[in-house]
Amino acid sequence: MATERKRGACGVWRGTAALGLCLCSSFGLAAEPKGKACQPPPASTIVVNVKDKGAKGDGRTDDTAAIQAAIDAVAGTKGTVLVPDGVYMIQAVRWGLQLKSGMTFKLAPGATLKAIPNGAERYVLLRIAGASNVWVTGGTLEGERHQHKNKAGQWGMGIHISRGSSHITVTQVTSKNMWGDGFYIQGAEDVRLCQVFADNNRRQGLSIINVKNLLVTDSVFQNTHGTRPGAGIDVEPDHAEQAVSGVRIENSKFINNAGGGVRLNAKKGYVSGLVMTGNLFKDNTPFVIKNAAENATLICGNRQEGTQTVTTDGFSSFAEPIRIVSHQTECGETSFVKTRGAPRKPRR
């Protein structure tokens, strides 16, 4: 049974302990990445199957070199690297597979790239660095957090986008069980994440460090726990020369993340034009926002679900859990919400 909670002024969810200070702003909805939808990759007759380069996909063989050979053969052609169903073991230390400009990396629905267990502080399964016009579609990226051979570090990543990469599209990709983050963006422009799924990653579902124009839509970020911050999405420039601008997070779900659904910390770098709308938050704090200018962020039209126990009176009393659904002011009614609250202690 769901019970509706009424909205308070300025878009705060009344009666929801997760939300504290409310400020109003005239921030508009103009901040949006170029090309809102995740565009399909260009059609090309060039297709290289990784098994034709010697990949086994048997869950035992190190397939790193064979898959990289397929990537190198397709780079710059607008062609496609095809990864059929199977489990492909990847040597992810330090940078794993290196995607190149002008290509599509397509995993079949039953294809998994799995990191070979290691003790490194950092690793990456798929790296996109200094590349443009790259599509990554389908399949699963799986880390080795439960087989990691050391306790140090927190930087084992599924997809790492960096060093001036631009026009990058990632769609229908699952990234799970990473020692660090499912997805990581630092130094990129015009990036789209559509229908991605981040699950059971140790540090973040997605880290946004330095980017101009980013769309995150129709995605799920859940069960992030293990080391702080432990958020579904963390927006946090690391240095003064880094900036996050033109980011839109919409129509996505944030479920059971130890450090909150979306965290924003603008203490060290500049953040502007961050829009979060149409999202669902369940079993975690919706937003944790620190050191952000009032006009840097628009939060509106989101929804939160939680559980409340109702006890009946009388000799035979019992407690019945019910679902509480809280709605936020719709966009266009000018709302801004800051959240204060300590994240939950990380689970191991």
List keywords for this structure.
single chain, 348 residues, mainly beta, 15-stranded parallel β-sheet, 12-stranded mixed β-sheet, 1 helix, 3% helix, globular, disordered N terminus
Description:
This protein is mainly β. It has one helix at residues 64-74; strands spanning 2-5, 22-23, 47-49, 58-62, 79-83, 86-90, 97-99, 103-107, 111-115, 122-129, 132-137, 140-142, 155-171, 174-176, 181-194, 197-199, 204-217, 220-222, 231-235, 243-250, 253-255, 262-265, 270-277, 280-282, 287-290, 297-300, 303-311, 319-327, 336-337. The chain has a 15-stranded parallel sheet that branches. A twelve-stranded mixed sheet has the order 1-28-27-24-21-18-16-14-12-9-6-4, with no helix packed on it.
Summarize the structure.
The protein has 348 residues and is mainly beta. Helix content is 3%, strand content 48%. β27 (303-311) and β28 (319-327) form a beta hairpin.
Reconstruct the topology from this structure.
Layout: E1 2-5, E2 22-23, E3 47-49, E4 58-62, H1 64-74, E5 79-83, E6 86-90, E7 97-99, E8 103-107, E9 111-115, E10 122-129, E11 132-137, E12 140-142, E13 155-171, E14 174-176, E15 181-194, E16 197-199, E17 204-217, E18 220-222, E19 231-235, E20 243-250, E21 253-255, E22 262-265, E23 270-277, E24 280-282, E25 287-290, E26 297-300, E27 303-311, E28 319-327, E29 336-337
Parallel strand pairs: 1-28, 3-5, 4-6, 5-8, 6-9, 7-10, 8-11, 9-12, 10-13, 11-13, 12-14, 13-15, 14-16, 15-17, 16-18, 17-19, 17-20, 18-21, 19-22, 20-23, 21-24, 22-25, 23-26, 24-27
Antiparallel strand pairs: 2-29, 27-28
